[in-house]
Amino acid sequence: MPFKKLHANLLESLERMNISEPTPFQKKSIPVIKSGSNVFCTAPKDAGKTTTLILTTLQKLKCEAVGKAPRAVVLVENKERAMEIYQAFLLYTKYNSLRVYVGYEELHIDIQKSEIFEGVDILISTPKTMNKLFLLNGVSTSQLKIFSIDDADFLIQKSDTSAIISITQSIQKCQYVLYSEKLHPKLKRFESYFMEYSKIIQL
């Protein structure tokens, strides 16, 4: 069972929230993500995608703060979703030293730059804001270990695709995990940009 092989801090958090059994999607996806592969994770709503994203991100960072530059990035559609994911992360980071930061279009970019400069481990942002930070040297990607895109279905309709490609082109070495309800051809196209040799987990 995948939960048994998680960091002790995460197991304690899961126990506190009375989560004892992984969902079928989590059983399939967590070991593959932990292996370090790039992964397309496709499953219907309420399959446990958000919890998988949080657990695998925290596992990758060993549940402890290191340095100042973000080691994990989570891209989301908008401010509302950014805040939801942020609150969900806080449930798991309450008893460890990890620093989670959330950025979005409505928050002035200079404020974000100075707050990120103070030191963060996990950066939650929208593609446009992340790209703007990137272009203004407001965020270093030199320490990035894992880059996740939450509910990536929004990229099928929106113009955020170019922002994502722009960001990922400058990242040297990183694991990419893309979560969506369906594996749309537009998402599959990321294989030729940053999702090389990716595995597909479908439920």
TrEMBL record:
GO molecular function: ATP binding; helicase activity; hydrolase activity; nucleic acid binding
SMART domains: DEXDc (SM00487)
Domain of life (superkingdom): Bacteria
Keyword terms: ATP-binding, Helicase, Hydrolase, Nucleotide-binding
Domain Helicase ATP-binding: 30-201
Protein name: DEAD/DEAH box helicase
